[in-house]
Amino acid sequence: MRLRSWLPDLVLLAGFVLLTVALIQGHLLTFDVAVANWAADHRPAPLYWTLRVFNYLGQGGQVLMPVAILLAGLAAWKLRSVRPLLVFAAGLVITYVTIGPLKIWADRAAPAFTGPNREIMFNPAASGQFSMSYPSGHVANAVVWYFVIALLLGLVLREPMSDRLRMVLRVAPPVIVFITTTYLGFHWVTDSVAGLLLGLVLARVLARVPWGIEARSTSRSEALA
Fold it and tell me: What pTM value is reported for the model?
């Protein structure tokens, strides 16, 4: 479905900016700490390891990108077109030039950090893996890559996916990743909210591109019928 209104995009982007400014000014930090502390106090080992597995649904480099490139390759072979590969490339580029740089810029420690002022933005004491918490890359990647996967899967199957199946594929994994990445203490809850907002903006940007593959897939299917 081609997107027409830019209002949702502007609202999502404004939400991300306002949340970022609020955190920089010291707001919501107490809430972040309260949620993280509650999760740490209610995290039995069996549940922890179960949710660790589900959290891999948002692992971009190890899970989502390999699945997406496989689907893109299959779709390109079936349609005799490089355009499905362009969809994958666009997803890779748009996440690479936004999520990573924002993490480096924000320089926010993760809840697992044991140094001073672990919840603040621009934490000079944080370094390495503990200094790239904002926004949540797992959540943002989940939103973007499951959009890409849903699009490519429809091309591989050569028939439109049902609205219900498409909705489940695009909504369920990001929701699961949002919950698990926050509960496991990998990110502050506001990190996950920021990742969700940013991911939705990026996915909507990809949805606006006239890829020219939906009609190609349909016409080829009809020719084979």
Answer: 0.89
